[in-house]
């Protein structure tokens, strides 16, 4: 039907739009200097990308599949498709390590061209890494090279169409290369909204949302991305899968669930059909104060179990509230006391007013203090800015990274304490460990931790040891190793603890059936 305009390319060695990269804000700089000190860490410059390793016959076959203009070997393009945007990814880039650069970037235009590229990869045993927005933070874009003739970055940037809209059923079919804002703009022209806004929203893609089981900041109202998906089209080395022929089915296990969260290891998602809603006429965000994290979490649980969730529901703990992390442009400035909750409502005016009043009645009755709309507006204004702040802190020698998990309500205090303790012990003082809840369910919630510590001379090693300690703590409490960041390579060692060795064997069997030569994102997930 319609195609999105080209989006801004992300920075090669930082997060996001290069024009928005900047120095640490003065308010944050004062906090950093007081807690950690300033240790300027310039990145390596003039680092060369390894020469392409693919044979001429493979390149010719790829050109025949997608057209010569869409098979790219230049250093700049390959650098932009090297790894994702986790702190370890950036630390390796800053140290001059580009060893994971693909040999070639290939840009198919449609499902058939994706299938043709996979056929070439199978014939010549070439690893293929599907690439959407490049926002992976768990090592999901660093394929294993051993045993392969080379690595292709399968860049889906040309697949940016809104293919179909069903206004009666309220569904839309999108191509995987559409970034979040592009998809929303195309849907808005139809009077519709998807409502999926993860922190990576400005750069992550529809295909990436599906392949990682993404969860957005408005998940309380719109749902996780996997809950929005009603249909998939997938290219695999064995052929095509079309899944989702009805709103619900009893025709055996739901095979869509095998592809959602599969991170390109089972197939390449080429079309996603999603549930959509009418554009909201009204959006209102407000702040609430709670004496403690436990009391705020109990209020969230009450709303979820009463079926009274707003569109946005987020709670910062005492530490995150104190330094204002819910407002990245004011970090280090005086924050609210206790714990800050952000509550947002979207929809038609009358239902919004009714739900807002009902939610406020519950929160007030449980001991919450309304703070008005200013804290909510401030959060909404800066909710995609935190990764830029992370990069600015890396510039002055402060290691900053995030990790997330989820558990049942009864286990939240144990999980919270275990992860905090593991991080503090692994990193030593001074360290900041901050946490918020941003995704809630009747039975439990997610915990999202932000960690800051001095990087020192081995920032990468320090974080790897801390992340392993936190992951061990998560597994020991029976929580999930990832709520919405996916497995990648970073979380793979802890997957057996969650699904069991038999469960991992089932996933390996699926991969063997769909990708018998193992060319799809080798080393990722399983």
Describe the structure.
The chain is α+β, with helices and mostly antiparallel strands. Helices cover 35% and strands 21% of the residues. The protein has helices at residues 26-35, 56-66, 75-80, 87-94, 111-124, 180-188, 206-212, 219-222, 225-228, 256-259, 293-305, 318-322, 349-365, 374-382, 386-395, 412-427, 459-476, 495-514, and strands at 2-3, 71-72, 104-106, 127-131, 151-155, 161-166, 171-174, 192-193, 229-236, 239-243, 268-275, 277-278, 282-290, 312-316, 339-347, 369-372, 398-408, 431-437, 444-454. The strands form four sheets. A seven-stranded antiparallel β-sheet has the order 16-13-15-14-18-19-17, with helices on both faces. It has a six-stranded antiparallel β-sheet with strand order 1-6-7-11-9-10. α2 (56-66) runs antiparallel to α5, α4 packs antiparallel against α17 and α16 runs antiparallel to α17. The mean pLDDT is 95.
Write the layout of secondary structure elements.
Elements: E1 2-3, H1 26-35, H2 56-66, E2 71-72, H3 75-80, H4 87-94, E3 104-106, H5 111-124, E4 127-131, E5 151-155, E6 161-166, E7 171-174, H6 180-188, E8 192-193, H7 206-212, H8 219-222, H9 225-228, E9 229-236, E10 239-243, H10 256-259, E11 268-275, E12 277-278, E13 282-290, H11 293-305, E14 312-316, H12 318-322, E15 339-347, H13 349-365, E16 369-372, H14 374-382, H15 386-395, E17 398-408, H16 412-427, E18 431-437, E19 444-454, H17 459-476, H18 495-514
Parallel strand pairs: 3-5, 4-5
Antiparallel strand pairs: 1-6, 2-3, 6-7, 7-11, 8-12, 9-10, 9-11, 13-15, 13-16, 14-15, 14-18, 17-19, 18-19
Helix pairs in contact: 2-5, 4-17, 16-17
Keywords: FAD, Flavoprotein
Domain FAD-binding PCMH-type: 98-279
Family: Belongs to the FAD-binding oxidoreductase/transferase type 4 family.
